[in-house]
Specification:
It contains two helices and eight strands; from the N terminus they run αββαββββββ. The chain has 139 residues and is of the alpha+beta class. The radius of gyration is 18 Å and the shape is globular. The termini are far apart.
Length: 139
């Protein structure tokens, strides 16, 4: 009976990824002892133009963690990393800043690659210029 449950966990985890238009040809999905294992690259299906965002990856991983009978999630992605409970693209650090204005809780999502950050002689990065950044309402 355990093998059938493991297959169902894999099927459901793949379904979560597919529902976000992730190309399953680049992700290996496995399950052992009710732990889901994901390896590879998270990229959208060819022809699907929406960018894969931190919010989408956070939601996908949360949905997989909460699938029936899943006791844990182990990942090894080439292009995404989890830190402090949140996901970000490798090589780019997400930065969140509150916007001025209405106070409706809107945030800016800015991605900066580490190699693009100018540093002064103390190794400190200057404040980011967030003009022209994409504004989201957290949905």
């Amino acid at each position: 009976m355990m093998a059938a449950e493991q297959c169902e966990i894999i099927r459901r985890a793949r379904g979560v990824l597919a529902s976000a238009f992730i190309d399953l040809g680049h992700v290996r999905v496995g399950s052992t002892n009710y732990i889901v294992y994901l390896h590879g690259r998270l990229q959208r299906l060819a022809g699907y133009s929406a960018e894969l965002t931190t919010a989408v990856v956070n939601e996908m991983m949360g949905r997989i963690r909460h699938l029936p009978n899943v006791r844990g999630l182990k990942t090894d992605f080439e292009d995404w990393i989890e830190s402090g409970g949140s996901w970000s693209p490798k090589g780019r650090a997400p930065v969140r800043a509150r916007t001025r204005g209405s106070g409706l809780g809107r945030t800016l999502e800015v991605h900066v690659r580490e190699d693009q950050v100018a540093r002064d002689d103390t190794g400190t990065a200057p404040p980011l210029d967030i003009e022209g950044s994409r504004e989201t309402d957290g949905r």
